[in-house]
Amino acid sequence: MSAPTRAPSAEAWATAFTDASNTDPEIQAHGKYFTCSYLLDATERTYVIQVESGKVTHVTVDPGPLDVAYQFAIRASAETWRGFGEETPAAMFHGIWAASFQRDMKLEGDLLILMQNLRCITRQVELLRVVGSPV
Question: What InterPro entries does the database record attribute to this sequence (predicted)?
Answer without folding.
Answer: SCP2_sterol-bd_dom_sf
